[in-house]
Design brief:
mainly alpha, Arc Repressor Mutant, subunit A, Four Helix Bundle (Hemerythrin (Met), subunit A), two-stranded antiparallel sheet, 10 helices, globular
């Protein structure tokens, strides 16, 4: 009985640690701290997070099941680079779900909460001015989830976190090559204005326009990358015989 209890306690500890590692990796992806095709080594992650390798493997397997990491057994574990089609699919889902989350959160956000969101937006603008891209991306994530987390819909927020986990690493390509641009003022300001006026229609539109306008440069950059990849593949010398991996 004592051995069984000790084994159960160890399994419970591994589950807790795996959940912690999973959450930290997920947040790093949402904030674009991990970038496309970055390789993830179990040993290095375990050392970085102060755990054994077992919970790290469990966390990576969970992320792989969600499509957030790519696992090639005996070769590598890495952050995938989304195709243009994948990015558009995720964007289209976000265009439906994020306005819903923001609207549900609107009635739960007090004026002081909205001002805190404004402060986060100002942090983003200041980071862009200083070319501190990492802080800008972190602030962008914090601005949006500062709303979504108040929706009172944990299942919806979990889905949105999964979508951001997949698209987040691609956001590392926004700066400095494809920064968000807006035709008529930053859409975060339109979002804040709609929240202050308690305008659900205006809020939904601002959320959608933020995704469409803010992501236009990234969409173009992904398309250019795919075109370049296709050109490189056509111009690569043809190899004969079997491929050997040493």
């Amino acid at each position: 009985m004592r051995r069984i209890r000790r084994s159960t306690q160890l399994e419970d500890l591994w589950i807790v640690l795996a959940d912690s590692v999973y959450g930290r990796l997920r947040l790093s992806m949402m904030r674009a701290e991990l970038v496309p095709h970055q390789r993830l080594k179990v040993r290095d992650l375990a050392k970085q997070m102060g755990t054994s390798e077992t919970p790290v493997r469990e966390a990576l397997l969970q992320l792989a099941r969600e499509g957030a990491v790519e696992v090639r057994p005996r070769f590598f574990i890495r952050v995938p680079r989304l195709t243009l089609a994948d990015y558009k699919d995720i964007r289209d889902i976000r265009l439906e779900l994020e306005p819903m989350a923001a609207e549900r959160a609107m009635s739960r956000l007090a004026p002081a909460d909205i001002e805190r969101l404004h402060a986060v937006h100002l942090r983003l603008i200041d980071a862009e001015r200083r070319r501190d891209w990492r802080t800008a991306l972190e602030a962008n994530r914090d601005f949006h989830f500062g709303m979504f987390d108040r929706a009172g819909m944990p299942a919806l927020v979990h889905v949105l976190e999964g979508l951001w986990t997949r698209v987040g690493p691609m956001l590392s390509q926004l700066y400095p090559a494809a920064p968000p641009t807006y035709g008529d003022g930053h859409q975060h300001l339109a979002i804040l204005d709609a929240l202050r006026r308690r305008d659900p229609y205006g809020l939904r539109m601002a959320i959608r326009l933020d995704l469409i306008e803010g992501g236009r440069g990234l969409l173009r950059r992904i398309a250019e990358q795919e075109a370049q990849d296709a050109t490189d593949a056509l111009s690569a010398p043809m190899s004969h015989g079997a491929l050997s991996i040493n």
